[in-house]
Amino acid sequence: MKLSILDQAPISVGQTPQEALEDAKKLAQVGEQLGYERYWIAEHHDLPGLACSAPEVMLGYLGAATTSIRLGSGAVLLPHYKPYKVAEMYNMLATLFPGRIDVGIGRAPGGSAEATEALSDQFLQQVWKMPELIRDLLHFLHQGFTKDHRFSNVSAAPVPSIAPKAWLLGTSQKSAVLAAKNGLAYAFGQFMSDKDGKEIIRTYRNEFQPSQNAQEPSVILTVSVICAETIKKAHEVASSSLLWKLQLAKGEGKQGVPSIEQAINHSYTEEEKMELTKMKRNMIIGNPNEVYAKLRQLQNDYNADEIMLVTITHEIEDKLTSYRLIKQEESCPTK
């Protein structure tokens, strides 16, 4: 089973953004040492507690600090940008780090309405133009992808020996069809969706059309995971990110991911307890054996080629331990 990492570069209470980004580097390095397939970092704008607004900058830093793990965006929020500039940035990365760069594409704003307005003009109109933006991006990443393109004589220099692999990130039938018809690999965000992912992925596979970007359909399933030595410890570690989600939903949590102690000592209302129960249903929390078994089951149920794990903790060591324990469980002779 291929396993990968999605990092949202969270900032913990008492931590600086620089320290959070250094933790992101540490996670990419440890992920490489453990044998994870790829490391993606997310793009967010003016969101409290999240440190990465420019994946393309961070990926250059991470590429220089690693040697083999694939690196990518999860995702470039394409409606904010001109496809040509995105292609130039990721071609540059692919030139520096051959055969290691992915460009994940998304269409969410990645921040508040005010941040969206500050970042780009006519965002909603650009969302409606997503099919065109994707075709333009693929044209520049794979010169000649689109016949008779209006920019057929323009190259997104430097042109790497191995083009970045483009993925579309989504949680809907619409995104699955868009990925399939453009020959894109597809990453389904199960951790942020309550839709029938199995049917969505089935649609993608059935409608996939081979392209220069991908000859066969390829699916990543992204799930929220907390793994620790014991089930009790895993739930203690998870309490930080769960409390933070509750805080963010109420417009709080601006200091970042709370500590386990803060989470344990928090006085939860009945409504918050119900919300916690709901959130836990969309997460995998447990010991190594339990977590790995559930990941295997998800891979089979969703017909996924790869599972990508997103793990948010207050302490970086708890996060690294979670990823380490899962890989150790995978390497057991009986697995």
UniProtKB/TrEMBL annotation:
Residues 1-300 form the Luciferase-like domain. To bacterial alkanal monooxygenase alpha and beta chains. It comes from Priestia iocasae. It comes from the Bacteria. InterPro entries: Bact_Lucif_Oxidored, CmoO-like, Luciferase-like_dom, Luciferase-like_sf. Coiled coil: none annotated. CDD domains: Flavin_utilizing_monoxygenases. The lineage of its organism: Bacteria, Bacillati, Bacillota, Bacilli, Bacillales. It holds the Pfam family Bac_luciferase. This is Luciferase family oxidoreductase group 1.
